[in-house]
Amino acid sequence: MNARVLPLRRPNGLRVLDLCCGAGGLSMGYYLAGYDVTGVDLHPMPNYPFTFHQADALTFPLDGYDLIHASWPCEHFARVTAWRGSRDNHPDLLTPGRKRLQASGLPWVIENVPETAWAGLLRPDYLLCGTQFGLNVRRHRAFETSWGGGGDLVAPCWHRKSLLAFEHKAERAYADAMGCTWMTSKEARKAVPPAYTEWIGQQYLTHERSAAA
């Protein structure tokens, strides 16, 4: 997939703001679910395929959006940080970020590593794995939503031996298996498969239709 030649989608008329968007893995999922997407990240993201603002996600205005997504940096909580360095070198942005979204009055989604759910910092309304979407990777991620989950369920994980392992020597293959083909291998190290938010975006639409009925 080329970042400048986007796949076809069926627009739903809603706008989503993706805070801490990175190179746009989860943004692409919302796009495929029909949303108009805007991304915000503290760092330049030259390969981000949608409207982009380089800004602080904790202060960027939220007005004008129908759904807010946030992937606050996970290094403070991830087990791999403890193995390779010190979690104290990475600030906890999840706690203030979550409070900001809760106070906004807008529908929201927060994505992070499963460790945040195990520690009670994130309610795992949805815990997703690549194998649930037919991908050849695991890539577990927890999602908390303002509507509290529910809706359709995905199939259980299938952790077969043939799954690609996340390792730098094969990271291009891993990135492509996630569906993040427009990113560089380095950008894809922190990416999450678009399939997750394509599904999450559909869950939000289902919730809204149910609430309006």
Automatic annotation (TrEMBL):
Note one Pfam family from the annotation.
Methyltransf_23
MF terms (GO), sorted A to Z: DNA (cytosine-5-)-methyltransferase activity
**Keyword RNA-binding (UniProt):** no
Enzyme Commission code: 2.1.1.37
* Name of the protein: DNA (Cytosine-5)-methyltransferase 1
Q: Which GO terms describe its biological process?
A: methylation
Matching Gene3D superfamilies: Vaccinia Virus protein VP39
